[in-house]
User: Fold these one by one.
Assistant:
Number 1:
Amino acid sequence: MAVPSTAPARTWFITGASRGLGRAFALAALERGDRVIAAARTIAPHDFDERHGDRLLTLPLDVTDRAAVFAAVATAVERFGRLDVVVNNAGTMSSGMIEEFTEAEARAQLEVNLFGALWVCQAVLPHLRAQGSGHIVQISSIAALGGFPTTGMYSASKFALEGMSEALALEAAHFGVKLTIVQPGGYWTDLYTGMTMTTPAEPYGPLRAEMEKQWAEGSIDSQPRLAAEALLKLVDSEDPPLRLLLGSMVYDLAFDISRRRMDTWAGWEQVSRAAEHAVPAPGSTG
């Protein structure tokens, strides 16, 4: 159960809110007395407790449909008058070796995880700018810390999301709008059970068997409500970070990857520095 907030009631717009982390976020916000627009491909009021009443608006929404996203945001603002927290949580996962992806499969991964979030940001920003406030939360992934076999396209979509979000954070800050990239570790959601798979290519059989052996050892994931509790602390902060890691495993991995990158950069420092020597622009007379 979420701890009631002493802050004024907020209005949340959450995508992918019908299950997993999105549903946990929506429930946590509702339990503290906030208003929630819960959007997902398939969603209905009866997916939530009726006691939330008119503080809840459920909207069927395919985030890859830009026009539908703008219409949903307009409906939300018309209903509640403002938006305070926007959570881009909708996402899918495609598993397969990079060489195995068809064009359609690769584009589909980016359509949801990158462009879906982009359309939501574009739709809400005029309203947040007009208010001079708001907090956009981009749900990224541990996969944005590095690429791993079979998750390459998923990582690509999350790397792209974070690159776009870093620039957006600087742009939005000029209007009093905050942005945080959240990088969750493992949670018991349907991300893995609902993921799509490429057609396996025979040369990758040994590597795939090696990966499946590692997965067979099992993992211990966390309950989504823990991520929701962290999200409440995040949006309550007067000075939220650009990035927030969720979970000990992802926290440790982030530091390990960062240290290894720094060691590599340091090892190649001479080559890096030798590749730069400022000269006048070609053809200039200066």
Number 2:
Amino acid sequence: MAAPSAVTVASSPADRAAHGRRARGHAPRSGHGVFEAAPDRPDVVDVLERQSVTRVPDLVPIRYGRMLESPFRFYRGAAAVMAADLGSLPGTGLQVQLCGDAHLLNFGLLASPERHLVFDINDFDETFPGPFEWDVKRLAASLAVAGRNNGFTQKEQDDAVRTCVRAYRERMREFAGMRTLDIWYARDDADRMRGLLAASMDEECRRRTAEAATRARSRTHLRAFAKLTRLTPEGRRIAADPPLLTPLRELRELRGETSPDEEDKELQALLESYARTLPADRRHLLGHYRLVDMARKVVGVGSVGNRCWILLLLGRDDDDPLLLQAKEAQESVLAAHTGGERYDNQGHRVVAGQRLIQAASDIFLGWTHVAGLDGRHRDFYVRQLWDWKGSPRPETWDPDLLSLSGQVCGAALARAHARSGDSVAIAAYLGAGDRFDRALTGFAQAYADRTERDFEALREAVRSGRIVAAHL
């Protein structure tokens, strides 16, 4: 994971600020406004196909089908493509623990362990150390692509990007003046978000923001329990909805492997391996539950094809559930393009990165390493399913809401980076003016153009029969 640099540990704030300003020499702020694909840029379909090799073959066409719904959906699934593009650009060298896939929909509302509604990054599959600007560029370009998807003018798109990057820059400057523990304890709860946005929101924005908070609070584990399970003669079990939700018992039947004793042993081994990664108090809490069922679930866009399991555990009785999600973790798409500590277990990488940059992580967050149905060992990270989790729906937004979302996402990203990186050096690099903001606006438009061309390349690959897409 990202660690404080020698400059951070050994130097005064003035020296750290000077270090940040020196980074402008090899990575000028205005230079971030340009994006040109490298001459040896790999074919975009080849990049996606290389990822597909390790995924569930039956699910890969679903991934492509979801990416083909729009350029914005394509962008969400193409983190590996952008990682290669970012890796070819001059970097600031100002390292943080990156989210790795900081697009608009990987921020949202979720529950803190204290049962407060907070706004934070909510996806860490690609987390890895790297230059802070990679996350900012991924977020900025997502706003431009989403704005185009909604038919907004270029000015409206640019306003959203500038608002986002300005919020990042200004909040990083705030963190540069704060004590270390104050940075660590900072969080964006719902009340703070309302106060932050009050001056910017009209009555319609306030109404929709309140509705989003209400929806997030309604997405509890009990609601997921009611939606995803049914009562059977054997008790509560996960309801089948193949291929999007397929219980393990049905997958085994398809392969002629129907031994319940062997199945129970494997499930118990998975749970015990995961439990050993939890703190002692959480492990004690988990011990009050018994594992009764498991199902493979299709989630997201870019993640489709990676193995994802829903685990149903019961406590006192059939009305005392705990639903966990175990999601396969593969090497970060950033790993090939930047230095950083390598982990023997990629689930551990995800969990360690999440704990470092998320202000309030799930109490059941852990990892495991198990044998899959094909006999291969695979890494997973585990968390609760649906714990007050609310995600934005940008296809319903107007330009003002896109800008407001950019503002809160940019501020949240700055908080995440300040926890793991040198806020003084980054703030000094960014400066008090808007040069970086304006540059990122140019980058976002250039990369949105690139995304549209890549989207067309994927469509052509389907039309030609090179790959197969399924729309589910």
Number 3:
Amino acid sequence: MGLRLLDARARSRAELAEAMAKKAVPDDIIDEVLERFESVGLVDDAQFASLWVEGQQRRMKSGRVLRQELRRKGVDDDVISAALQETSDDADYTAALAFAAKRARSMTGLAPEVRYRRLAGALARRGFSSGLCHRVVHEVTDEGEEFDDPDRG
């Protein structure tokens, strides 16, 4: 059962333990299986967290949201912090700017205050701080420049 779950995508140790517990697998068997998976490299929460952060950053999510998602998956806070430290210092800014620029293209016909409100709301729902939301929305709506300039930020 655990191998089938891992075949679909990488999973945390806690996710696998929870899935096996739902199938009424005894706790001692769960522990034994997970220890074996770890020893052969099939389960590694640090690698899982790093891959999760990398993959979800492409989906333009904030570090705060990534931390929450990994906590829900049962990853230890120290492991989460280490995975998030691997990202660049301006990863949230870059993700927020890319997301806002993409969204703003579909809002060109809206009044400026409506566009601002919708962009800020969309960024906030992705977990970006209010200060970063304001900064990015201001850049996207007021400057009107191309946002793929690597010298920004």
